[in-house]
Amino acid sequence: MSRSYKRSFAVTTALLPTWIAVIVIYVGTMLWSIRLSFTDSTLFPSSNYVGLSQYAKLFATPKWWAALQNVAIFGVLYVLGCLVVGFLLAAALDRKIRFESVFRTIFLYPYAMSFVVTGLIWQWMMNPTFGIQASVRAFGWQDFSFDWVVNPNLAIYAVVIAGIWQGAGLVMVIALAGMRGIETEQWRAAQIDGVPACRIYLSIILPQLGPALAAAGMLLALGVIKTYDLIVAMTNGGPGYATEVPAKFIMDSLFQRQNLGLATAGATVLVLTVIAVVAPFRYAVHMRARRREGA
Amino acid sequence: MSNHIRPNGPKPSRLTPERIGIYVFLIAAALFFLLPLFVMLATSLKTMDEVRLGQIFELPRQFDIGAWSTAWSGACQGIECVGVRSGFWNSVKITVPAVTLSVFLGALNGYALSFWRSSSSRILFALLMAGGLIPYQIFLYPLVRIMANLELYNSLAGIVLVHVIFGLPLVTLLFRNYFVNIPEELCRAARVDGAGFWRIFFEIMLPLSTPMIVVASLFQFTGIWNDFLLGLVFAGRDNLPMTVQLNNIVNTTMGERAYNVNMAATILTALVPLAIYFFSGRWFVRGIAAGAVKG
Amino acid sequence: MKNAMKLLLAGAALAALLAPANADDKPKAEVMTSWTSGGEAAALNIIRSEFEKRGGEWEDSSIAGFGAADAAFQNRIVAGDPPTAKQVVIGLDPAEFIKQGLMNPIDDVAAAGKWADVLPKTIYDFISHDGKVFLSPTGAHGESWMFYSKEAFEKAGIASEPKSWDEFFAAMDKLKAAGILPIAWGGQAWQETKVFNMILLSQAGIDGFLKIYVDKDTSPASMEAIKKTLTILGRMRAYVDEGAPGRNWNDATAMVITAKAGVQFMGDWAKGEFTVAGKVPGKDYGCMILPESEGMVFIADSFDYPKTGDASQDKAQKLLAEVVMDPEVQVAFSIKKGSIPMRTDVDKSQLDACSQKGLELMSAGKIVPDQAIILTPQQAGALADYVDAFWSNPSANVDEEVAKFPSIFQ
């Protein structure tokens, strides 16, 4: 028996558990969901096909539209916010700071907290009647206002703040690690030229950190579309539909509202949206890698 | 790949305005990150009468640790009033094998996908990434049926398997990105020497990937420890993790709420991941610096 | 899917028949509820200890939060491994499970205990499906209550309970003038929906309320009642504080307890919070049915009994159904839970002033069911969305919103 045959057998064996998981769980469930989204299933799956009427119902629901819009706003601001804050923290920590490890631990610890806890605490802190607003006013600044979490137009941004609090530390670690990997000669050269530190970070370090930051962004983005716990704990989707997100919409339909058909229609739309957003991006990366290999 | 963790930046000289600025920024940021922890601690040490006054930023008038002992060993979840204590070992029993298994599989996948590429493995990776983006709530229903058919429903093995399945996308992504940066010659040379797929993995790649193993384990540990929904649905009543007990204490619709106990229970539940981050924070940064997370 | 389920159940039933019946076996029940807080658990314990006294063995599987408990229960059913009994709100929520043939009827227990005679007819109808009894009710909660702080009312110079909505808003103005927050508002969709229903009952009356929710009537009279309700609800926005959105009901109750706020609209479970804080009904705080209301909205808890295919559990189900409906258990349970007994023939003397008022209305049949009882879960959810969206948008046009109301029932 040839060695290459043996090898490909080994590769297949190694990947077998993952193949089974992917086919049975991921692909299987997706197909199952898509099939149910064409039925009138309520609490249990039914095989009474109703065409696209679940989708029609879904898109006639203002709450679903609000959910899509909110997750887009949240996703963009959360990922960008974490990247910016994380980078700034890393840049500051990179400047030979005393107690660096203490600061680093402080910035990273929220990442170990569950979203449920994060949501609850921030809900308290942002509550205008006993949170930050009330405390600042008690100090004498009567006009101070910080009512984002209860303001339908701003509530989603309040959620973004809580999200950044939780996720920025991760970016900080990744960026800091990246900065430490940059050769010191570049630094010396730039310093001799008298370039100010902040310019060095922006024009020399930031571009080199590109891939690391992209990876961090990807890690954060993986969680965005699944955002559920944070919302439930912090605002439960309110006020009104101001912070409703698709994962919560699906979850509510699935269990509390006993509406399997609508839930699976929502999930299908979500998956298609993700593929529509991610596929061109992945394709571009793939093509670029190919071109590079070819060159 | 350099493993030095020394800061870049110029040597700290005198206190220039720039350095004062950096410290002010860092301290302000640290306060922002610590504020929620302060509120949790302060609340957990207050009596309910004091909590009802709603001054969340004030120190307790007198320190009362009653809430802590209640949370650990006396808080009711339903009829049994045993606090979060009883779930602690369950969480350990779920988390440790699930982390070990998923990190091992992730490393194996990452290795196979980076060094033994084929068109089928590319498809596998794409499907895995797509699966990683779907809100997992939608998987619950079919997965429950699958688990029931395998007679793994409501068992420790079942919940561990579920965590491994849902951990695969993230861990595989991490290891694939790590191995992609390892020179292919290393693998090729070993192959020429006659080493097979498994020998290369166990003798070369696995030892090489220690930093990544640390990072992936930390990610997985946090995620699995903090999980609530999967534990609730799949673990069975003898294996319910700590988070389910936390939910039973914190989350009640019509009953009274003891916020001081809630906060103490919350901190107790978060203690293990917090401790792990605290003690392995240095390794975490080192792991990432060693190229664990790069584009 | 349905067939597979039937097959599964048939197989389970067969297995049960073949299993040797062991008379010494204690009937064992795994009971799933969402009652986890102090008062709730104490109430559940009443049932448990009586169940155990009568020879049963109890396994508690309580999970906090309706959503979490429902998710866990549905998944257990799907896996073919249901608990022995599940606490559930009577009405359309359990109906789907019963229709699918997943539940055991408890007809013989109901017949032996003459449930038809001792339960209000409305309740008896709701626990029966196709002429068979499936649910054993534990107690009802009145949901048309306005709790008020006597201290706050005194300070503001409000002499008596408001009899009409005009008087109500006049009283609110007085509270405002006295520097007291008029309404302690819990800005969560489910709480807002309860207030909506309370007001609707005061405007539509019992028949009108049932016409709207049961017959899905959209006649001008019904729409007029919706309009009046939304108008009153909208007026309340001026009397709440900015911290209201997302507030838990018990935090709102705490504001009334400390006399920071004047009134709160809530179900009678709020009494538990007052009691814990050492406040006495009629002395420190008052409870009144909403102005202009001829009756009370109610919600009722019960147990239902999934088919487990296990003879010992079948026995346990019958025993539990019996225990739950025991007159003494009903009273003791209600005192702990702050609810009203379901049986009309129990000893009222131990109940507090508020519960007695509620029981009177109940016995007189002056009650209408909560939306969770008469609407499908999907419709009930849509109603909550509807009310929440209206409340959160102060510039909402009442006429436009009224026109949207019928879409809830689609």
From TrEMBL, chain A:
<comment type="similarity">
    <text>Belongs to the binding-protein-dependent transport system permease family.</text>
</comment>
<dbReference type="InterPro" id="IPR051393">
    <property type="entry name" value="ABC_transporter_permease"/>
</dbReference>
<keyword id="KW-0472">Membrane</keyword>
<keyword id="KW-1133">Transmembrane helix</keyword>
<protein>
    <submittedName>
        <fullName>Sugar ABC transporter permease</fullName>
    </submittedName>
</protein>
<dbReference type="Pfam" id="PF00528">
    <property type="entry name" value="BPD_transp_1"/>
</dbReference>
<keyword id="KW-0812">Transmembrane</keyword>
<feature type="transmembrane region" description="Helical">
    <location>
        <begin position="105"/>
        <end position="125"/>
    </location>
</feature>
<dbReference type="InterPro" id="IPR035906">
    <property type="entry name" value="MetI-like_sf"/>
</dbReference>
<dbReference type="InterPro" id="IPR000515">
    <property type="entry name" value="MetI-like"/>
</dbReference>
<feature type="transmembrane region" description="Helical">
    <location>
        <begin position="260"/>
        <end position="285"/>
    </location>
</feature>
<feature type="transmembrane region" description="Helical">
    <location>
        <begin position="12"/>
        <end position="34"/>
    </location>
</feature>
<feature type="transmembrane region" description="Helical">
    <location>
        <begin position="200"/>
        <end position="225"/>
    </location>
</feature>
<keyword id="KW-0813">Transport</keyword>
<feature type="transmembrane region" description="Helical">
    <location>
        <begin position="71"/>
        <end position="93"/>
    </location>
</feature>
From TrEMBL, chain B:
<feature type="transmembrane region" description="Helical">
    <location>
        <begin position="200"/>
        <end position="221"/>
    </location>
</feature>
<dbReference type="Pfam" id="PF00528">
    <property type="entry name" value="BPD_transp_1"/>
</dbReference>
<feature type="transmembrane region" description="Helical">
    <location>
        <begin position="156"/>
        <end position="179"/>
    </location>
</feature>
<feature type="transmembrane region" description="Helical">
    <location>
        <begin position="123"/>
        <end position="144"/>
    </location>
</feature>
<keyword id="KW-0472">Membrane</keyword>
<comment type="similarity">
    <text>Belongs to the binding-protein-dependent transport system permease family.</text>
</comment>
<keyword id="KW-0813">Transport</keyword>
<feature type="transmembrane region" description="Helical">
    <location>
        <begin position="20"/>
        <end position="42"/>
    </location>
</feature>
<keyword id="KW-1133">Transmembrane helix</keyword>
<feature type="transmembrane region" description="Helical">
    <location>
        <begin position="94"/>
        <end position="116"/>
    </location>
</feature>
<dbReference type="InterPro" id="IPR000515">
    <property type="entry name" value="MetI-like"/>
</dbReference>
<feature type="domain" description="ABC transmembrane type-1">
    <location>
        <begin position="88"/>
        <end position="280"/>
    </location>
</feature>
<feature type="transmembrane region" description="Helical">
    <location>
        <begin position="261"/>
        <end position="279"/>
    </location>
</feature>
<keyword id="KW-0812">Transmembrane</keyword>
<dbReference type="InterPro" id="IPR035906">
    <property type="entry name" value="MetI-like_sf"/>
</dbReference>
UniProtKB/TrEMBL annotation, chain C:
<keyword id="KW-0574">Periplasm</keyword>
<dbReference type="InterPro" id="IPR050490">
    <property type="entry name" value="Bact_solute-bd_prot1"/>
</dbReference>
<keyword id="KW-0813">Transport</keyword>
<comment type="similarity">
    <text>Belongs to the bacterial solute-binding protein 1 family.</text>
</comment>
<comment type="function">
    <text>Part of a binding-protein-dependent transport system for a sugar.</text>
</comment>
<keyword id="KW-0732">Signal</keyword>
<keyword id="KW-0762">Sugar transport</keyword>
<feature type="signal peptide">
    <location>
        <begin position="1"/>
        <end position="23"/>
    </location>
</feature>
<dbReference type="Pfam" id="PF01547">
    <property type="entry name" value="SBP_bac_1"/>
</dbReference>
<dbReference type="InterPro" id="IPR006059">
    <property type="entry name" value="SBP"/>
</dbReference>
<protein>
    <recommendedName>
        <fullName>Probable sugar-binding periplasmic protein</fullName>
    </recommendedName>
</protein>
